[in-house]
Design goal:
The protein is an alpha+beta fold. It contains eight helices and 14 strands. The protein has a six-stranded mixed β-sheet with strand order 3-4-2-1-14-13, covered by helices on one side. It starts with 9 loop residues before the first strand and ends with a strand.
Length: about 350
């Protein structure tokens, strides 16, 4: 299908997915760049919010990592709202990006959003699924004398649609999510398994609906899945990805070795270290040929000399990192836009 003003054009895009771990940047009065030289006590005094700002040294390290990666589209989890995202962009990233965030259902006020490089040859639109039922509730919360009541996403699944001319004819759709964590403080759902499975099922339903509505439009399905959704020893709640779809993760497509796929380190008892891939960027089949050779990797944070840090082996080392997750990077090339 050709639009009257459509011209043949291809686009190269670099993507980064990152759970930024409690990226709160809330200020009573917006600071200037001099605030980046404050000590931590002074930095925290810039805000009277009930949400503590992310430590300054960690935000500066995030800035350094993102500046080095230099993504065109940054997909973020655990952002403390639209104000935090705008402050991160303007104060730390030179206002190079447009922000896109719709606050979801998180009871911790951590949301998912995007930074999209300015002056790109396309427009974008963002839509939320935070009010969509996931067709699930905890059995102990169901009441026999009342109709079934479904929970919603614990955070959200947001749809970023990129288009050149017509918003109803996107050339790329990105579904970004942050699935239910393993936390179960009320002891209703061991490790959050049932709700996470229901959220993933609904995410895949949304993906199928997008494919039906926009059959020519490729999709990226990305986010912090909070579990092993890879083809290697796939955890049970994620098997539906491979049983019902043709989606493939960028690290799997490019055969990145398992020892280099981890995006999260679990340090137990201050001595036992377990590395895991929790963050994924799945592509629909038509996008696979556009994945730039050798472009998929997990970025490792660096020390003051620019050398990659080893995985943390103590809780102290882990807590000192810019985030408890590592950025996932990949590039698409010669992507047709219309």
């Amino acid at each position: 299908m050709m639009w009257p003003d459509q011209k043949d054009q291809n686009l190269n895009l670099k993507f980064t997915l990152l759970n930024a771990e409690n990226l709160f940047l809330l200020f009573d009065q917006k600071p200037d760049e001099s605030a980046l030289s404050l000590d931590e006590a002074q930095w925290q005094k810039l805000s009277s919010s009930v949400y503590e700002n992310k430590p300054l040294h960690k935000v500066l390290e995030l800035k350094r990592a993102i500046t080095e990666i230099n993504p065109d589209i940054l997909m973020l989890c655990e952002v403390g709202g639209e104000e935090s995202l705008k402050n991160f962009n303007e104060l730390f990233l030179g206002n190079q990006y447009s922000t896109a965030l719709i606050e979801g259902n998180s009871d911790r006020h951590i949301h998912i959003g995007f930074l999209i490089r300015k002056n790109m040859p396309f427009y974008f639109d963002l839509q939320s699924n935070k009010n969509r039922a996931i067709n699930f509730n905890y059995p102990q919360d169901l009441q026999a004398d009342k109709p079934f009541s479904s929970l919603k996403f614990s955070r959200d699944v947001v749809e970023l649609r990129l288009f050149k001319n017509n918003p109803d004819h996107p050339f790329l759709i990105i579904l970004l999510s942050h699935l239910k964590s393993h936390l179960d403080p009320e002891k209703k759902d061991s490790h959050g398994f049932e709700r996470r499975r229901a959220e993933l099922k609904t995410l895949l339903e949304i993906q199928a609906e997008m494919q039906k509505s926009y059959p020519e439009t490729p999709q990226i399905i990305a986010g912090d899945f909070n579990g092993n959704a890879s083809r290697l020893q796939t955890e049970e709640e994620f098997r539906q990805i491979y049983e019902t779809t043709a989606l493939e993760d960028v690290l799997q497509i490019q055969e990145v070795t398992p020892d280099k796929r981890w995006t999260f380190c679990q340090v137990r008892n201050n001595q036992k270290v377990e590395t895991k891939q929790l963050d994924y960027a799945f592509l629909t089949p038509s996008l696979i040929s556009h994945l730039k050779a050798g472009s998929s990797y997990v970025y490792h944070y660096k020390d003051e000399y620019g050398l990659e840090l080893d995985p943390p082996v103590t809780l102290e080392a882990k807590v000192s990192l810019p985030s408890d997750h590592y950025p996932l990077v990949f590039e698409l090339e010669k992507l047709p836009i219309w």
